[in-house]
Specification:
Layout (H helix, E strand, L loop, with lengths): L3 E10 L2 E6 L2 E6 L2 H4 L8 E10 L4 E6 L2 H10 L7 H10 L2 H9 L3 H5 L6 H16 L16 H11 L4 H11 L6 H14 L1
Parallel strand pairs: 3-5
Antiparallel strand pairs: 1-2, 1-4, 2-3, 4-5
Length: 196
């Protein structure tokens, strides 16, 4: 299994990125919590990874911290939660906030994450409660055109995270005017969604 990659960022189109490692480009999918901390394209980066082998593809997921990777690995063991939902969860809520939701049995907060319905949230709380006590514990993607504006890249990332087109547009409009990077637009849109 590939446990980590270190190289230069060749491209970033949330939630996907490519890291050039000695001339070999690794395509990775990462939660927005990781994207927020990535350096600019061309800069050096070191990421922890988890490889998911499916019948039709081998998908490499990247994480900035061990806590994110550990939570991702725990989430995909929950019945009915695959990598796409786990990625959406990590994009919509921090590791610490997720832990608080489980401990406090806050189903409502979990259902605000796109793709998480009430039954899935209840299952997460039930199955993750014991795993979070363990000391070891703390998706089809819409393509985004390269060279697109930060607004269209942010829109594509929100769609990839499970937001409906109208929701994504509304969240981005709520960010307001200004010159923001793609990552900043996504961060502010997700913060706005979590306050609703």
């Amino acid at each position: 299994m590939i446990g980590s990659v270190r190289g230069r960022i060749a491209s970033k189109t949330p939630p996907q990125l490519m890291v050039d490692v000695g001339g070999l480009g690794y395509e990775l999918e990462a939660p927005m919590s990781t994207f927020f901390h990535l350096p600019a394209v061309g800069e050096e980066v070191s990421l922890l990874t988890h490889l998911v082998v499916r019948e039709d593809a081998h998908v490499l997921y990247a994480f900035a911290t061990e806590a994110e990777r550990r939570l991702f690995r725990s989430l995909i063991k929950v019945s009915g939660v695959g990598p796409k939902i786990a990625l959406a969860l990590l994009s919509g809520i921090s590791v610490e906030a997720f832990s608080r939701c489980v401990v406090n049995e806050d189903i409502t907060a979990l259902t605000k994450v796109p793709g998480i319905g009430r039954k899935t949230a209840e299952r997460l709380v039930m199955e993750m409660r014991d795993r979070l006590k363990d000391p070891e514990t703390p998706a089809g993607v819409a393509p985004v055109a390269t060279g697109a504006s930060p607004e269209s890249e942010a829109y594509g990332a929100l769609i990839a995270l499970g937001y409906r087109p109208a929701e994504a547009t509304r969240l981005l409009k709520a960010v307001g005017p200004g010159t923001h990077s793609t990552e900043e637009l996504i961060r502010r849109a997700l913060q706005g969604a979590s306050r609703e």
